Amino acid sequence: MYRNIARRVNRKGNMLVIIRQIVIYYDVIFFLILSRALYLSIPSTSENNGENTISVDRLVPNFLTNKKLFDLLDSRMEVYQRSADRSRLVTLAKTKVVVEKSASPKLADLESLTISDLKQLLDQRGIMYNSRSTKHDLIGAVIISGPVTIEALAHMKQIGDPKIGAVHEFNDFNIEETVEKHNESIFLINIWPQRLQSSYFNKLSWKALKRKLSYMDFKFGELDCDLKKRICMKRKWNISTLYLYTPGKENTTEYYITDDYSVHSIFSSIQNEINYRVKHISSWETFTSSKWAFYYGSKDKIAIRIILFTNMTLPPMFLSSLSVKYRDTVNFGMVNIASHKGRRILRQLKQKYWPLLLVVTKRGIFTYGKLQGEHFTYQELDFYLSNLLQDFQPIKQWYHKLPCFLDPTLIGLIIVWFKATHVFSRVGIIYEERNRGHQHDGDDVDNNDTMETVTHEAEQLRIINQKYN
Question: Which of 136, 268, 287, 300 could share a disulfide with 295, CB 3.0–4.6 Å?
Fold first, then answer.
């Protein structure tokens, strides 16, 4: 009996040792993964505060339940039958897109402006013009880009021309490294060829191009092939070349400067290269899709949609540059109101003034460009978007800013791990002591049995001896 008990204790002890090894010695990765999962799950609870919840009228009608769809139509005082087909009710919901109301501003008299003022207006909006353009041509270009308010004109004269930032000097090794550090800015690098080459991008043209692109927060650099012959030979830069780096694009673009170049053509080429994220909205059905006027739900990561209503066929440079900087958080669209479908969208929204910028958020659709301080420039819209995006960032606790090795969840789980190690170690010692005790008891039982056998055999021998004697 004692031997069976000892065997059972030994089996339990071995099983406990195996379990202890699995839990203690092979759980480090498990605890690390669990701690990170808990740590990342905490911010999601703070995202659903009162300000960041999505209103019903911002959800795409196709995905609303019948009750929410009825509530939406009731809130808009729509007349409908509940027994009607769901597709008709969804179409009715999409025909009513509520836009913030605002009064039309006072416009400036373009005829009273000087040629320098007209050029500065076009530079701020990122619109190219010929250096020899007449005043009549410049006024026509401004009209196409949109009317100018009196307040916007005063603001333009107040801020003046932008300052051109420092020009980075590049060598064989730091081109890719430097442009990747400025991941939000477009980089334009002027490659000066060896002086023996005939084609050459003169400094006056380079200065004029930098001035125009500085309005759009471009970064600039220069590389002199007379001093850096190795990299120029490697990349075959034997004539004047402009190296354009656009964040978000896998490939860079190189413009080779020929003898018949013009700043106007270079500017237009750069504009066509960076406007890849501005999408043309050509119909009301596209506008009311979940990509622009509505949201799928809380899983929709794009917090803001920017839609420019303009008479231009191509997006202005300020819009293209902003679309590159905010490529991960904002969708940029454009409606050409010179077309019949574009004017229909504007009429559906009951808007008359243009250029008009619609700012579609999770809270509603707002207009930009009619109130004081709302100007169609890169700097003003950049400031506006940066502040607007802060309202949609999840509120993070102080410990979310700590490094990985200082996360409270990770520290707590490490403490639990050490505590579990200590407990299992103590339990293992106790079981080992018990096993040893059981082994000693078994040995004592065996010894007693042996002594009884020897005593019995001795008694038998004594009895036999007495009989024969």
Answer: 300
